[in-house]
């Protein structure tokens, strides 16, 4: 499993009812169901991802996240997870509100634009960053709302949310000690666990 | 144990179930119907494809749509040019793989293809049932299908599968007999008809009932059929099965000849097509059956018993669902499938949903399409894995 998914796995409690936004091939939900008795649904828009979920026996619903979560009731889930999709949404801030309407707790991961390699790309070489976490060229990227570790913390503060946990991933591993001390600089993937106050 | 109906037939495609022969099941226990009447005895015609395994755990029920019947796959004879109506999805290696599954497909009560219906003999009067045949509902069909399952020794279906009106029967199965359905596949269906859907059905019924040859439904006794009415009904229905784009790309404004003839004969290709569809149907389908089937569609509304709350109506369901819709279906559009999916998630049921991109409108559920096939196959393969269903017929196709 991807490094950010490994971390999230630990944060999901036993037997939780979860919604996994942009669940991809359903690997996280499958493991959570098998090992932690977790129930719930994945939302996905990619046809291949949906078929892979169905093949695994993971509940998946074709859904465009930009349409919001209107079909899901308030407080109907324990957690809403959204990995690597925040930056591709039309209104990430509104989605954060939606996630914390449907569940008390949300887990969000996104590529940290302030990662030192990204800074070198932009600051020294003068090009939009292209990396493992941001593999697209500027003209065809689905990532329309890039942000940094600090930006997201700032948004959470503005919304009065509690940051329960935060972590970073670098490459395929959980963060090095440097990324613990300076996450905004050394974290490639930002991982947050937030709650309503 | 019922054997496979499939025979080896060299001239047919390798992924066909081949030549098939229908069976007739007789029932003499009276069947109480939702309308209050009782059907004293009845017959159901059905076909099977594949082999029932020793555990009887690999049976799949196919529920048909408005004008469907028991002949879902394979061929009846050498002279058959077209296979059964769902041959694209039933066969060796197809979405419903007959190397693994034992498929049962029947003609519903009230039908006109061999099951007891308006064209059958009424034992009480000695006449044909005609318009006296009682109104049957989706629940009645499901009850009769359960008795067929009993007769075949099938305690639980590995899956109940259906498109359109067939999908509604599948839904009913999960609510009435939750213990007897291990999985449900509901394709291009809706939890209830909209006012517009009912309106189209009413136009079709009026077309039939206002035909002078209808004779209040006793046309057979007058040695005639309300052909014009049935033709109109089918023409109007057919428009709702295709998408605007599909019609546009198939016919556009193409003319049959080069010039306008300033008359009311067939000029546009689309007129010719619709008339042809209507004509073919009007000689092959029974008008009273058509009336009954459209009424069964109109009446289906499981949420009505729960003050409109579909999630509570679905509460008894126990199995995982696969719900599929098609982007250009405007008869039962994706939003109606989504309504069902939202009720299922609210009820905490296992459900997956996909909205397949297809230009073919409602008819897309009958057709082969790569993504549809991949998804449907993935769901069926998962069922086979979870129920430990081994291949039963591999040697026949190798």
From TrEMBL, chain A:
It comes from the Bacteria. This is Methionine biosynthesis protein MetW.
TrEMBL record, chain B:
One of its GO terms (biological process) is methionine biosynthetic process. Keywords: Acyltransferase, Amino-acid biosynthesis, Cytoplasm, Methionine biosynthesis, Transferase. Substrate binds at residues 234, 363. It is found in: Cytoplasm. SUPFAM superfamilies: alpha/beta-Hydrolases. Pfam families: Abhydrolase_1 (PF00561). Pathway: Amino-acid biosynthesis; L-methionine biosynthesis via de novo pathway; O-succinyl-L-homoserine from L-homoserine: step 1/1. GO terms for molecular function: homoserine O-acetyltransferase activity; homoserine O-succinyltransferase activity. Its EC number is 2.3.1.46. The active site is at 164 (nucleophile), 329, 362. Its main location: cytoplasm. It catalyses: L-homoserine + succinyl-CoA = O-succinyl-L-homoserine + CoA. InterPro entries: AB_hydrolase_1, AB_hydrolase_fold, HAT_MetX-like. The record marks 331 as: Important for acyl-CoA specificity. One of its GO terms (cellular component) is cytoplasm. Residues 58-366 form the AB hydrolase-1 domain. Transfers a succinyl group from succinyl-CoA to L-homoserine, forming succinyl-L-homoserine. Homodimer. HAMAP family: MetX_acyltransf. Belongs to the AB hydrolase superfamily. MetX family. This is Homoserine O-succinyltransferase. It comes from Vreelandella alkaliphila.
């Amino acid at each position: 499993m991807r490094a950010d998914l490994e971390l999230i796995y630990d944060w999901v409690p036993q037997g939780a009812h979860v919604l996994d936004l942009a669940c991809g091939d359903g690997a996280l939900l499958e493991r959570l169901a098998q090992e932690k008795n977790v129930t719930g649904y994945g939302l996905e828009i990619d046809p291949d991802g949906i078929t892979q979920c169905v093949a695994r026996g993971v509940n998946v619903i074709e859904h465009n996240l930009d349409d919001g979560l209107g079909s899901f009731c308030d407080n109907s889930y324990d957690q809403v997870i959204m990995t690597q999709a925040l930056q591709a949404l039309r209104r990430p801030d509104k989605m954060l509100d939606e996630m914390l309407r449907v569940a008390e707790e949300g887990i969000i991961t996104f590529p940290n634009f302030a990662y030192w390699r990204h800074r070198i790309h932009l600051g020294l070489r003068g090009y939009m960053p292209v990396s493992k976490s941001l593999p697209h060229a500027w003209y065809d990227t689905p990532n329309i709302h890039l942000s940094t570790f600090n930006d997201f913390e700032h948004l959470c503060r503005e919304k009065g949310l509690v940051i329960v946990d935060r972590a970073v991933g670098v490459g395929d591993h959980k963060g090095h000690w440097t990324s613990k001390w300076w996450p905004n600089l050394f974290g490639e993937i930002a991982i947050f666990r937030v709650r309503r106050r | 144990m019922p054997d496979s109906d499939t025979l080896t037939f060299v001239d047919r495609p390798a992924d066909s179930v081949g030549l098939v022969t229908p069976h007739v099941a007789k029932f003499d226990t009276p069947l109480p119907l939702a309308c209050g009447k009782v059907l004293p005895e009845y017959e159901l015609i059905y076909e099977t494809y594949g082999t029932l395994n020793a555990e009887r755990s690999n049976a799949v029920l196919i529920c048909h749509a408005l004008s469907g019947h028991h002949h879902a796959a394979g061929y009846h004879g050498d002279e058959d040019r077209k296979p059964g109506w769902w041959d694209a999805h039933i066969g060796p290696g197809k979405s419903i793989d007959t190397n693994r599954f034992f498929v049962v497909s029947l003609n519903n009560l009230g039908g006109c293809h061999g099951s007891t219906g308006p064209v059958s003999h009424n034992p009480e009067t000695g006449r044909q049932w005609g318009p006296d045949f009682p109104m049957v509902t989706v629940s009645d069909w499901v009850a009769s299908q359960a008795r067929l399952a009993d007769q075949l020794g099938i305690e639980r279906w590995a899956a109940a599968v259906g498109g359109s009106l067939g999908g509604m029967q599948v839904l009913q199965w999960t609510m009435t007999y939750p213990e007897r359905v291990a999985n449900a596949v509901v394709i291009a269906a809706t939890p209830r008809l909209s006012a517009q859907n009912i309106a189209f059905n009413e136009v079709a019924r009026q077309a039939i009932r206002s035909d002078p040859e209808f004779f209040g439904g006793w046309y057979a006794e007058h040695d005639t059929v309300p052909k014009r009415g049935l033709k109109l009904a089918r023409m109007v229905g057919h428009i709702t099965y295709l998408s605007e784009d599909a019609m546009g790309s198939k016919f556009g404004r193409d003319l049959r000849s080069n010039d306008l003839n300033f008359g009311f004969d067939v000029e546009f290709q689309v007129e010719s097509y619709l008339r042809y569809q209507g004509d073919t149907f009007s000689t092959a389908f029974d008008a009273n059956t058509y009336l009954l089937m459209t009424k069964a569609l109109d009446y289906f509304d499981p949420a009505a018993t729960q003050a409109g709350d579909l999630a509570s109506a679905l509460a008894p369901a126990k199995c995982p669902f696969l719900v599929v819709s098609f982007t250009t279906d405007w008869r039962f559009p994706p939003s109606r499938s989504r309504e069902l999916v939202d009720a299922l998630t609210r009820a905490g049921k296992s459900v997956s949903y996909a909205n397949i991109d297809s230009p073919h409108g409602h008819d897309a559920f009958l057709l082969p399409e790569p993504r549809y096939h991949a998804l449907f196959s993935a769901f069926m393969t998962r069922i086979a894995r979870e129920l430990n269903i081994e291949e039963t017929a591999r040697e026949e196709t190798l």
